[in-house]
Design goal:
115 residues; mainly beta; five-stranded antiparallel β-sheet; three-stranded antiparallel β-sheet; 8 strands
């Protein structure tokens, strides 16, 4: 069997686009480790939740390896870098609909959130 591109970045992009197209606020739940670049003062129990709506970020990009962007925390612009393996969930703030992933999975199984 050939090496396939992981499916997780496609799932993340799909939920992100669905949120934006429906004027919903996409949130990312992220497991924070040494490869994750986020403001540490906002990390709680090894996790952070990020608002990645277009109005809250600048230079937002989802690649097959990571999500990167600029966002403001306490009025200060920060560069963010989140490896795809560290994304635990992407969902709409307003209704909780989205997908959750097994921790550490690049390809992983997705589980639908919300109703």
């Amino acid at each position: 069997m050939q090496n396939l591109i992981p499916s997780k970045p496609y799932f993340v992009r799909a939920v992100y686009n669905w949120c934006v197209d429906n004027s919903l606020t996409p949130y990312l739940a992220v497991a924070v480790d040494g490869r994750t670049h986020v403001p540490r003062q906002y990390v709680h129990e090894g996790q952070i939740v990020l608002n990645v709506a277009p109005y809250a970020t600048h230079q937002f990009e989802i690649t097959n390896e990571a999500i990167s962007c600029q966002a403001r925390f306490g009025g200060v612009a920060q560069l963010l870098y989140v490896p795809l393996e560290n994304i635990l969930a992407i969902y709409a703030k307003e209704n909780g609909r989205g997908l959750a992933f097994e921790p550490g999975m690049a390809t992983g199984t997705a589980m639908e959130l919300g109703g």
